[in-house]
């Protein structure tokens, strides 16, 4: 058994090396003209010390800071042919023009031409194709001359047809067209390299310096100079490839590795030690086969192409097989069988023929979910059933319904098959297939808890725990089907981890407790929430992060590696990721257009060697202006409604760029496209922190920047001073106003007091007058009553005298006495006194009465006055010197004169109306 496994591993390893030689490519990131929004042609490419990419584009200088592309055109609109970063300046050359670009304090790029330093020196119709720094001077090369720029002045060194300049043995080396290589002094003197007869009549296009050794390339061959003699490079296969593909550039990327850019077939990755090479062209992931420029930094190669810009990582632990034709589709599983790699995809089952071409197994067209090698047979779970693959034939086993998975039943020569309609048991010896009872739902995955218990995972509706009845005489039958409470109506995943059943439900891991028949928290997997386990063998665990679809490897001891999403080129088959272990170091993972090879050993070795660039602040601006980056800007409040911050993260192994804003309003998040939009920030001081996250989501680089937002005009210092004065003025005004109110209140109180005093005096006066009137009324009433009594007595005496009239002897004396009594009764003086007193009490009574009733006599007025005093007829009679009946008659006549109604009381009428 051990020998068999050893042979299988050898076959798989050999197959892996064959695949690597034929179809696995390193990560290649393509940037098209649509991505960077400029012309397709890029004549040269360079990288500065910070990792910023610069490209000489047909439309100007193209820059990529890891977040966004920027284009800086020349005012003339000329094509830029060469670019060279040096000490913070970006030198460029174009048609009859060269100079440099530099950023100002606001982060804006500006161009300065240095052509004016040439004076009247005639510049012919030259284009400057190459720029080089040497001895703190900058050399510009055209096809007609070489120029030197130093200390803000430029001078021509020599007119000659030069195809290349380089530094060799601390001297400037020039490739002269069809004449070979020469040292060029500052005086314009040419000194040829020795023994270069082999280059006679050939034009050197590029050279690579390696110590004292030179590698020089012409259009059709590579040559080597050992310090004394030139010779054709001793690798005829390489030279044949160069002749066929047409040499253009050469660049060293490691001690024994070079990259050769060609005109017709991409690049050649060549090993100087073992003389092996691989070609990467349009069929292998490049956008274009014509390589016009090359640059490298931190193990990454950048290619300026005739159509686009590409980034390659030749030393990456991840390589890809990509089906460019689209025929393969999304790969759902893969396995090795009889020395071949088979791939199950949504379009069928594929393998590679002897020529390394991808071919489909005839008859397998359609969705294939799973491949499994059991008892040296290859099974395929297909959309239309279960099949075996033998000698390129796709042979049906069961076509009743589609199937998801096939797995052996422990301790039994049977297989369990998860199908679209349930679970079937299959006995390969007799080719017997039997549907399990009571399972009438699709089963996408079968996981064994032990020999008698399985878990059946529904594609959409939880997982079921099934106990099998298993003996030697009967086929497995379902004894119990139980969907655990909490798993219903949701997608779940079930795995076995260290003899435990782990269940991923709603992105949280649970462990099944067999004794309680319930789920409990799987504490060992708390750090892997939102992660689904896709591989688990030999204490090696691979998870897929469900949030960003990245891969995570761990041994649960001290190793945890995250493979960022962009490294997999956004190509994982989400929800159906599968992994195949090829050997101890190499794993294959399925992709939506092929598969990826991951070298775990290399990844672990390079884990701490990843380079993460430091974030760079490119600019800060509001709606009206840009602000300098060399100090803390004060942004007016009215302009701070929208602040745009431009940030850069030069191309590196960083996973992403994050920011945090500290201040009056804190916030944070991921930087996208190099722009941070801050809106409606309150005034105050702020500090912006930029974090470059490494491959393991650790902070690998940071940068800080401070700025302030001035308060609004109504909160400025001047306005605060105004507010102080206004406040003091308000206090003074309130004090004055309060005093005014107090004075007014005091005046009102005085007025009120005076008014009350007057009222009291008036009331006292009225009371005095009322008392006086009352007294006078009483006096009038008393005097009247006394007069009435007197007259009544006199009238009684007169009556008595009249009775005994005949008894008096002296009739004259009696008459005289009777006259005196009549005079006393009708005394006018008493009436005048009464009238005067009555008028004092009832002023204008007689006047008003006469106005209304002018025909009233004095006697009528006298009766009215007595009635006004509410005297009875009996009381009035003596006062008027008449009888009571006379008073009644007089009253009747008075009513007639006043025309009063019979029911109207005369006394009440006079009292109320007069």
Automatic annotation (TrEMBL):
A Gene Ontology molecular function term of the record: kinase activity
Residue span, HTH luxR-type domain: 853-910
Keyword hit for Lyase: no
SMART domains associated with the record: HTH_LUXR
InterPro entries: Ig-like_fold, Sig_transdc_resp-reg_C-effctor, Tscrpt_reg_LuxR_C, WD40/YVTN_repeat-like_dom_sf, WH-like_DNA-bd_sf
Transmembrane segments: 713-737
Record's keyword annotation contains Ribonucleoprotein: no
Assigned keywords, A-Z: Kinase, Membrane, Transferase, Transmembrane, Transmembrane helix
Protein name, UniProt field: Histidine kinase
């Amino acid at each position: 058994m051990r020998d068999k496994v050893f042979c299988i591993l050898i076959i798989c390893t050999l197959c892996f090396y064959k695949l690597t030689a034929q179809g696995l490519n390193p990560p290649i990131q393509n940037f098209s003209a649509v991505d960077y929004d400029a012309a397709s042609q890029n004549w040269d490419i360079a990288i500065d010390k910070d990792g910023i990419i610069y490209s000489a584009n047909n439309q100007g200088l193209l820059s990529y800071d890891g977040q966004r592309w920027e284009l800086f055109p020349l005012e003339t609109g000329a094509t830029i042919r060469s670019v060279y970063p040096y000490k913070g300046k970006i030198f460029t050359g174009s048609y009859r023009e060269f100079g440099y670009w530099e950023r100002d304090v606001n982060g804006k790029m500006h161009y300065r031409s240095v052509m004016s330093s040439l004076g009247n020196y005639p510049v012919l119709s030259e284009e400057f194709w190459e720029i080089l720094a040497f001895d703190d001077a900058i050399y510009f090369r055209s096809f007609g001359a070489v120029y030197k720029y130093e200390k803000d002045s430029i001078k021509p060194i020599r007119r000659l047809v030069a195809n290349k300049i380089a530094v060799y043995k601390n001297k400037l080396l020039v490739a002269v067209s069809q004449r070979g290589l020469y040292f060029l002094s500052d005086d314009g003197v040419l000194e040829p390299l020795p023994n270069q007869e082999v280059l006679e009549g050939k034009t050197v296009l590029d050279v690579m310096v390696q110590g004292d050794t030179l590698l020089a390339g012409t259009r059709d061959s590579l040559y080597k100079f050992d310090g004394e003699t030139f010779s054709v490079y001793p690798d005829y296969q390489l030279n044949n490839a160069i002749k066929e593909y047409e040499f253009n550039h050469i660049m060293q990327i490691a001690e024994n590795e070079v990259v050769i850019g060609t005109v017709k077939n991409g690049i050649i990755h060549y090993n100087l030690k073992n003389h092996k090479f691989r070609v990467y062209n349009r069929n292998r992931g490049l956008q274009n086969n014509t390589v016009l420029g090359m640059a490298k930094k931190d193990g990454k190669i950048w290619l300026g192409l005739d159509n686009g810009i590409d980034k390659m990582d030749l030393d990456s632990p991840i390589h890809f097989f990509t089906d460019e034709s689209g025929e393969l589709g999304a790969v759902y599983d893969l396995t090795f069988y009889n020395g071949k790699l088979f791939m199950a995809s949504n379009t069928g089952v594929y393998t590679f023929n002897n020529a390394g071409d991808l071919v489909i197994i005839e008859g397998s067209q359609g969705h294939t979910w799973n491949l499994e090698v059991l008892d040296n047979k290859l099974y395929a779970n297909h959309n239309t059933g279960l099949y075996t693959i033998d000698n390129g034939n796709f042979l049906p086993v069961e076509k009743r319904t589609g199937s998801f998975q096939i797995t052996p039943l422990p301790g039994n020569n049977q297989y369990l098959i998860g199908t679209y309609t349930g679970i079937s048991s299959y006995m390969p010896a007799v080719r017997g297939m039997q549907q399990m009872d009571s399972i009438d739902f699709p089963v996408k995955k079968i996981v064994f808890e032990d020999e008698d218990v399985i878990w059946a995972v529904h594609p959409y509706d939880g997982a079921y725990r099934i106990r099998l009845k298993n003996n030697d005489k009967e086929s497995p039958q379902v004894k119990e089907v139980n969907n655990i409470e909490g798993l219903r109506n949701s997608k779940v995943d079930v795995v076995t981890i260290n003899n435990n059943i782990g269940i991923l439900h709603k992105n949280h891991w649970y462990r099944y407790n067999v004794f309680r028949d319930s789920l409990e928290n799987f504490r060992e997997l708390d750090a892997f929430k939102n992660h689904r386990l896709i591989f688990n063998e030999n204490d090696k665990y691979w998870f897929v992060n469900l949030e960003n679809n990245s891969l995570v490897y761990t041994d649960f001891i001290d190793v945890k590696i995250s493979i960022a999403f962009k490294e997999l080129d956004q190509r994982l088959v989400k929800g159906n990721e599968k992994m195949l272990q090829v050997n101890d170091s190499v794993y294959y993972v399925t992709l939506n257009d092929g598969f990826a090879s991951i070298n775990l050993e290399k990844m672990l070795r390079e884990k701490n060697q990843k380079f993460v660039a430091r974030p760079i602040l490119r600019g800060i601006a509001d709606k009206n202006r840009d602000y300098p980056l060399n100090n803390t800007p004060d942004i007016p409040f009215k302009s701070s409604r929208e602040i745009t911050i431009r940030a850069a993260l030069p191309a590196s192994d960083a996973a992403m760029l994050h920011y945090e804003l500290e201040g009056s309003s804190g916030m944070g998040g991921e930087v996208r496209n190099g722009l941070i939009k801050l809106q409606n920030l309150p005034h105050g001081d702020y500090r912006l922190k930029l974090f470059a996250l490494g491959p393991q989501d650790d902070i690998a680089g940071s940068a800080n920047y401070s700025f302030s937002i001035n308060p609004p005009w109504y909160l400025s210092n001047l306005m605060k001073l105004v507010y102080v004065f206004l406040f003091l003025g308000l206090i003074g005004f309130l004090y004055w106003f309060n005093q005014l109110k107090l004075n007014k209140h005091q005046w009102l109180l005085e007025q009120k007091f005076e008014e009350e005093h007057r009222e009291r005096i008036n009331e006292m006066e009225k009371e005095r007058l009322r008392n006086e009137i009352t007294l006078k009324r009483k006096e009038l009433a008393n005097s009247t009553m006394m007069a009435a009594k007197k007259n009544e007595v006199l009238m009684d005496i007169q009556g008595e005298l009249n009775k005994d009239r005949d008894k008096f002897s002296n009739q004259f004396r009696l008459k005289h006495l009777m006259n005196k009594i009549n005079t006393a009764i009708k005394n006018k003086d008493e009436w005048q006194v009464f009238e005067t007193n009555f008028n004092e009490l009832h002023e204008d009574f007689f006047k008003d009465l006469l106005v209304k009733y002018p025909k009233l006599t004095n006697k009528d007025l006298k009766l009215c006055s007595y009635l006004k005093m509410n005297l009875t007829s009996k009381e009035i009679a003596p006062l008027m010197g008449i009888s009571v009946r006379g008073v009644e008659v007089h009253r009747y006549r008075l009513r007639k004169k006043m025309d009063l109604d019979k029911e109207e009381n005369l006394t009440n009428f006079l009292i109320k109306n007069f």
